[in-house]
Structure formats: structure tokens, C-alpha cells
Amino acid sequence: MRVVERYLGWTLLGLLFVVASAQAAERPYYQGKNVTFFINFSAGGPTDIEGRIVARHLARHVPGNPAIVVQNMSGGGGVTGINFLGEKAKSDGLTLGYFTGPYNHQMMKSSTLRVDLMKVPFVASVQGVTVCYIRSDVAPGIKKPTDIVKAERFRAGGLSFDSNKDLRFRLAFDILGVKYDYVTGYNSSNDARLAVQRNEIQYHDENIPGYRGVVEPQLVKTGIVSPLYYHDVIAPDGTMRKSPDYPELSSFTEVYTQIFGKAPTGIKYEALKAANMASQNLNRVALLPPGSPKEAVLAMRYAFTQLAKDEEFIAEAKKVMRFQPRFEVGEDGERLRDKVLRAPPELITFVQKFVQDAMK
Predict the structure, then answer these.
(1) Interior CA angle at 173 toward 339 and 236, to 5°?
(2) Which residues of 199-223 are buried (b: 16+ CB within 10 A; e: fewer)?
């Protein structure tokens, strides 16, 4: 009898273990957990505003519905937060970075970046399409985008020598063959925009919120400036995409083709495409710490896929950010990342020299 009882006891324990294991396997990874949502720029800036909207709506799409707590870790042009995620954050998937410009830093071989971003799990990215504009009174007069090649020498304003914004407009102007003087060091696009209004500089470019919210109503509709083009949006397979955010405008490649009857080629154009992918296709990037569990990566990718279809999130984003965020999630984003981080060495060397030459 005791043998039977003992046998039944062990059998019951075995069944309880199997049931408990099955329940644990079915329990969402993030259930009952807290996620720290790191933003690599200070509170109140564009990255912070957009990041907090994403964080506010993301939690309900993460299986297990964890609590998400936002923290800012600014410094070093965004590199401080990136280094923290790659070096110090625990590899438990409970820290999610929402960063601006991480891949641009690695492509440009920034001396302050200590993390190999190929080893940092990619979750999702958000596009940020830039519109380029110029004062309409630049001689002999800018009435349409193709007039840019007729423009007499003008002053183009940027933020810093190593800014991706500056790199892209300088490459684009060189490809077009226009004559311009390069002025940089403005603290923000707000400052550069005011300089355009004062006619200190005649050219600048801005992302969707700045363009739709300020430039278009105050400068385009009053005739002070004319939009030229938006920087190219590139699909994961390498082809060019039309931007649904600017149906009335043409891309840089389209305007170049209208002017010269053929698409641009050459190392400057290849550098421009790489810079566009790094700073435009991969404008904001969500990343997890190296070594994070696969189930954490998959859960966060699922959440961003669902977020992209969330009408409440889209409505708030359009109201505050003035555009509908467009995500690249999982493998599609990884293909874009790989194109940037595995760019040919000669292309990276060219870009570094191009930036250094501007400093002389």
C-alpha cells in the first residue's frame, strides 16, 4: 500500500511540475515586469516628445502589458545613452532604447561611440523625412525646384560640420553642381530658420513637424521660400520610395533626373544614399541591450507592429508630431541597418574626408 501511495505521490508531483512548466511557458515574457524606456536626448526636444508618445501607447501592445517608465539620458550628441544601453544595461530585455541617429554615429566612426551596433538587437525604426527649402528671391529667382541649378551663389545653413543634416545637403548640392557658401554652427533648426527669414542664409532643411508646422504656413505660403525636394526614402531592398508624407513634392533623385535627364551616379551619390538611410529611414530607432532574450525581442517587435496600426496612437502622433509615424520592424529594418553599417570602407573613408575638408 505504501508503495502505491508513494508511486501516486511522485506521479502527482510530476504532473504538477509539467503543468507549472507549461503555464510558465505560456506566460508572456513581460508579464508583471517594468520596462525602462531610455531616450538619448533631453526632455522637451523632438526625440523626447515623439518617444513619450510612443511609450504611452506601446505598453498595451506588449504581450504581458508591462509598466513602461520613461527616462532621459542625454549627452554627447545622443551617444551617452547609446553607450549605456550597449555597455551597462542588463541583458534581460527590460531596458528599451529609443534613440535618434545611432547608426549615423557608427557609420561616421564617431570616436565617442564604444558600442558595436551590429550586436545590439534591432526592434523597430521610424522614418523622418527631410524637406529642403530655399529663399525664393535667390537670384535670378526660384519659382520651381529645377531652378536650383540656375541659382547664383547663396548661403546654406547647417548645425555642425559632422551633422548628418549638413553632410546630406552638401553632398546633394555638389551632385547638382550648384554654387553655395557653407555656413554652420546654428544651435537648432529654429535658429537656422530665423536666419533664413532674416536673409542671413538662404537655405535650410527640416523634418516633417518643422516643415508642416512652421515653414509651410509661415514661409512657403507667404512666398518667402520655395520647397526644393525631400531627401530620398530608400526601401529595404535598396529601391527608392515615394514619401506619402509629401505627395506634392518630388525627391532629390526625381528633381535631379528632371534637370539632367538621367539619375545621379558616383561616390557622392552613394554616400548620400547611405547617409539618408542612416538618418532618415532610421531616424528614430528602438533597440534592446546586447544579449537580450529572443522572446523579449520578438515581443517588442510584435508591439511595434501593432502600434503602427493603433488608431489612437496615430491620432495623437498626427496632432502633436504632425505626421503619421511609419515603422520598419524586425528584419526589414535590419536590412537597412546592414546597408549602412556594412558600407564599403572606401565610401566611409570618402565621407570622413568630405567632412574634414569642410572644416579647413
Answers:
(1) 20
(2) eebbbbbbbbbbbbebbbeebbeee
In the block, residue with C-alpha cell 565617442 = 112
Rounded (5°) CA angle 256-242-204: 55
Quick check: 1 pLDDT over 90?
Answer: no
Tens of pLDDT, residue by residue over 189-225, are 889 999 999 999 999 999 888 899 899 999 999 999 9
Peptide linkage before 140 cis (omega within 30 of 0): yes
Write out the E strands in the chain: 34-39, 67-72, 95-100, 122-126, 131-135, 154-157, 180-183, 203-206, 225-230, 233-234, 240-241, 284-287, 327-329
Q: Quick one: what percent of the chain has pLDDT higher than 70?
A: 93
pLDDT (average), residues 33-52: 92
Output the CA angle 262-337-257, nearest 5 degrees.
10
Residue 231's SS3 state is coil
Q: What is the pLDDT of residues 58-87, one digit of tens each?
A: 999 999 999 999 999 998 888 999 999 999
> What is this structure's pTM?
0.84
C-alpha span between 287 and 277 (Å, rounded): 17
* Contact of 242 with 251, CB cutoff 8 Å: yes
Between the ranges 227-236, 237-246, 299-308, where is the mean pLDDT highest? 299-308
Find cell 530608400 and name the residue: 234
Angstrom CA distances, 344 to 8, 62, 105, 114, 239, stand at 67, 37, 16, 21, 18
Q: How far apart are CA 178 and CA 170, in angstroms?
A: 10
Beta-bridge partner residues of 134: 203, 226
DSSP bridge pairs for 286? 98, 124
DSSP 77: G
Q: 79: buried, middle or exposed (CB in 10 Å: 19+, 13-18, 0-12)?
A: buried
